[in-house]
Fold these 3 entries.
Entry 1:
Amino acid sequence: MKQKADVVIIGGGVNGVAIAYRLATAGLDVAVIEKNYLSSGATGKCGAGIRQQWSTRENTELAIQSVHLFEGLSKELGMDIEFRQGGYLIINHSKKELDQSEENVAMQRSLGLDVKILDVSEITEIVPVLDVKGIKAVGATFCATDGHANPFLTTFAFAKAAKKFGASIYTHTKVTGIHMKNHQITSVETTKGTIQTPWVVVAAGEYSKGIAAMVNIDIPNKPYRKEILATERLQPLFEAMVISFTDGIYFSQQKEGQIVGGIPIPDEKPGFDTMPTFSFLQHMSQTLTRYIPLLTQVNMLRHWTGFYDVTPDARPILGEDKRVKGFVHCHGFSGHGFMLSPMVSKLLAEYISKGTRSSVLDQLALDRFDNVDLTHEQSVVG
Ligand SMILES: Cc1cc2nc3c(=O)[nH]c(=O)nc-3n(C[C@H](O)[C@H](O)[C@H](O)COP(=O)(O)OP(=O)(O)OC[C@H]3O[C@@H](n4cnc5c(N)ncnc54)[C@H](O)[C@@H]3O)c2cc1C
């Protein structure tokens, strides 16, 4: 293992390797430390949906810019990441949701996003198999440039390109300590040796809280188990990702034909339990077949769990810590860290390599939680 690096990144999920790629292309000497294998965290468990329809400006901006980057990523990284744009259909079930949608759409359009507000009759033009009466839909929003990519291929593509530009990636290597002197990062200790470095990026998903504690930083993140299933392969039925904030459900049909989706089980408590539950299977099957009754006869093939790393306002924590110089936060994605990774990695790499400050990083800094008036992201599912 190398003994010195310009930057050490903790975590080999999509964010860790994307930052490594951006820093390596900027000419920095980077080491990624991953305790298991690449994409073994939330990245390899996720639904991999890519949505620009958010209620907060920062998430919308990051997602719009990420979609622009996703559009060119296969070519840029030299590997097909299976990015496709089938759109996101967000179902509204009440007047209150319609009003919130109108507010969100006005903000999204002000940022240049092409989003449509649909009445009930237009919903089935997008997803013909939906039972709009059964789910009590009163309207929807649709953005055709939202989509999906393969989370494994995206991670592997970033990692391969990062290595090509000189990054070192150490898998099956765990970070066990971080050292600092006079509030400045000096080194990172791992199970395979110590690396001297002035910068450490924490992209360790739900384990970021424990990593931050190594330098006495308290972050407010909580891990929530999230379950997700895949059915057997079916003929092509629809292209859009369907989501509902009322029911908490999201699902899409993959390129190979499986329906993949999830829903929270009621009253889920935070914790590190990874056991899949029968309650989820029951709740998801009942809700999914209410949305698409013809799925009643379809077999569910796989069911697995992962974690959302959730912050009090459901928005990520990004940027250099105000008290520990060289300690960079990149966590707390609260269920949407895959889709934001292209832009988040760009902003953090520009900050580390050039000192470029962006207003989004300021707004999503850890110290926003000192404020009593938090802006909460409303558009969350799963
Ligand atoms: C069921 C489910 C569905 C989801 N659906 C979506 C979706 O549709 N769209 C979307 O954008 N997001 C979705 N998400 C969220 C998304 O998966 C995450 O926000 C994103 O993958 C986070 O990536 P990351 O690289 O920051 O962290 P992770 O992928 O969690 O990677 C962190 C890595 O750090 C490593 N690590 C931890 N501690 C240490 C240590 N001490 N030393 C070394 N390595 C360490 C872990 O092993 C892990 O590989 C979903 C999540 C789940 C669970």
Entry 2:
Amino acid sequence: MSAAHIIGLVASGQATSRAELARLLGWAPSTVSAHVQELLDAGLLLESGEGRSRGGRRPRLLSVPAGEGVMLAADLGGHHARLAALDGTGRPQKIRDQEMDVSAGPEAVLDQIMDALEELGDGRPVLGVGIGLPGPVDLDGVMVGPSRMPGWHGYSVRERMSRRFQAPLVVENDANLMAMGETVARGPDLRDFVFVKAGTGVGAAVVSDGRLHRGARGFAGDITHNRVPAGGDRPCSCGNFGCLETIASGAALVAAVNGDGVDVKSTADLVRLARDRHPTVTTNVRFAGRQLGEVLTTIVNFLNPQAVVLSGALAGCDLFVAAARGVLYERCLPPTTQDLEIAESVAGPDAGLLGIGRLILDQGVALASS
Ligand SMILES: [Zn+2]
């Protein structure tokens, strides 16, 4: 384990010398030197140039050799997975999109995904492995009550992965990963924000002071099962009635628009018609955006974030975003919205993969300093 921590600290730029490693790991300098020497001998670390001296001998700079260690990442949707080999700093090197069906159950799906990841890794040393899942995941990497994922409830994804990979593991809900990916894409200035993934479903995540806020069991950030007054007695996938999901998710919007006699098959179809200002679609999309805005108002007042970042198919729909924004500005306390940025995500389709890279690096640091 210590090898991965050392590589993670060096790869992320948090440590460039033995002295910095000793400080971050809390180890004796002789112990750090012994481990570093093993990694240098194995070719997993490189020593080059000379760092800045703080009096005394100048330290040699440590780095991760380009093309050596690899992180493996998989971002799963309902019917599709995006897989990648990331370099030691968490940047995608090789990306592969793959069809799959989560309803095939966890074992079949995970075996298929892990085989594909191993292939992408190409036999290189594995620095960490991460997987993003389209449903609630607890802190132990167990899925809890995911909708439209038969067979996954109570299944330990982390345990299954640990049988194959002896490396730091990340098992996380997809919105959480996308939020962390946004911190990579936007850089260190974005530290406090609410991330909303508005696609077929509605997911959200909270990043506080640059770190993911997971909550006591890992389920923080759920907004989709907030009851909204306009939801009335519409049945929700969670078994309750009137949740935000029954109005503001892509799936609910498609159903509503179909009910009004307009033929749309997917959220993408819907967004296209909204861009063309189809009157029925426009009315429904605006209404949905306002309901999302209502729920976000409470969260923005409570958390005072620097930004609300919107992602997913509906985030590309100006009517939806404008409606949510309008309610936020109207209903939030003025000091809260004065500098509030409401923006579309810039991380793009690799957001989840970037988030996995970031969390693998963070995990190396957290484990090392515990
Ligand atoms: Zn619900």
Entry 3:
Amino acid sequence: MEDMESIMTIALWGLTGVLGIALAMKVTERLQLSFAKHPSLGGHLRMAKRVAKWIPGYSYAQDKWFTADGAPQAIADQRRTALADLGQALQSKSPQTLAQTQATKPMVSDMQLTSQYRVPFQFRNLLAQFIQTGSFWSASEGAWLTDMDGNPFIDVTGSYGVNLFGMDFYKSCIQEGVAMAEKLGPVLGSYHPCVLDNVKQLCEISGQEEVSFHMSGTEAVMQAVRLARYHTQKRKLVRFTGAYHGWWDDVQPGPGNPMPPSSDSLTLNEMHPNTLRVLRNRNDIACVLVNPLQAMHVNKAAPTDSTLVDGSRQVHFDRQAYAQWLAELRKVCTDKGIALIMDEVFLGFRLAEGGAQAYFHVKADLVTYGKTLGGGLPVGVVCGQSRWMKRFNDKNPGDICFARGTFNAHPYVMATMNVFLNRLKTSEVQNLYANATALWQQRQNQLNHALKAADLPVRVAGMETIWSVLYDKPSRYNWMFQYYLRKHGIALSWVGSGRMIFSLAMDESVFDLF
Ligand SMILES: Cc1ncc(COP(=O)(O)O)c(C=O)c1O
């Protein structure tokens, strides 16, 4: 009997010990995760969602609007007159474009959203009484866009990054693509003959073995993550604070998504050793997603003018440091069998022909492309090593990784992509790539020089052909700059002065006008 009691006591102690160790391990894992989060709200998405709900909607009335920084009455009066003049100038410049925008906006929710988020929210109601922004273009040529009133604007909207070689380039890609696909027409579910050439070229450019076609960048990312989960049999994806990977729930947790952040998606601090520790110590991570555009503003979201609350903005690009970070990430992913996914939907083909992989000297397991690769038509592509791309299990026929889409590999898109890929090999495009880094750095320096010489409190910074306007003097009104640029014929996207996207083909004569 006594023996039995002793055995029970030992077993209980043993069990308590095991539970204690398991608990300690869980607590350590949790703490490591907490330390690997970026300290900003962007790194704490549950809290960010809570805070977002608490922010009361309010608008500055006339008096406060013009004196938000405590300016004296005389300055407020000057501002009121300047705003009215600016609004009047924009109205008389583009009456038709603005009328069309006003007529369409009540029926297009996307237009309503983007027009709401161009400036800090306190200012927008009164601003709308003075200034309207047109959302229509009627023509494009070279680096120029023309509004419905015939006004030319220099295009730095970049068409969300698609416009890498100038609009004429894409127009002719589409024309040639349509001619190539015409005979087959929109036959879906099988392939236009040009697809073989597309996949060969994509494998070569990406340094990968297989390709899958999708209809948007968002879908390409969804597929890359699904494949990583399938092959690792693990659930968690790691993304970095501030990085955009499309609007699918798992990669767009936090404010903007009505669902609470999924526990399968970890948002970690980019370029931080604590993140590497989490990747090394956990055993439930399927993939790490990298958007190399973040190299310009690590751990921060796109620098929109609506967030210019205090007028400051930080952009700093260090190519070597980012390459070093990617090399460390590569190593830990290889050691742990985690899929490293380079999301090149935005930057693919912009930094170099071989994309961010070539530019930062890193080899990913899966790469996503989109935007410019469609030659002007909508597309998403995943390239990867066969062991990551395979969608079924030879030993178990029921074990498949399903992904389809009615319009995948649409003949017109494939043909236009084929024209795009073939054009990459021309000497014209090769020359653009060869000189890009030096040329765009020199242009950045040249513009900053001119801004300094003119004693203006703005300058530009960025990565290759993607720039942000930085404001030397903090102000509650720096976001107004976007409207003055528009008045002077520069077209920005709704993000505003935080993201100017140039085409590699913009020549000196246009840049000088800048
Ligand atoms: C890096 C990145 N990934 C994915 C996407 C989503 O692509 P799409 O808008 O074609 O769905 C974007 C779009 O901006 C992107 O920049």
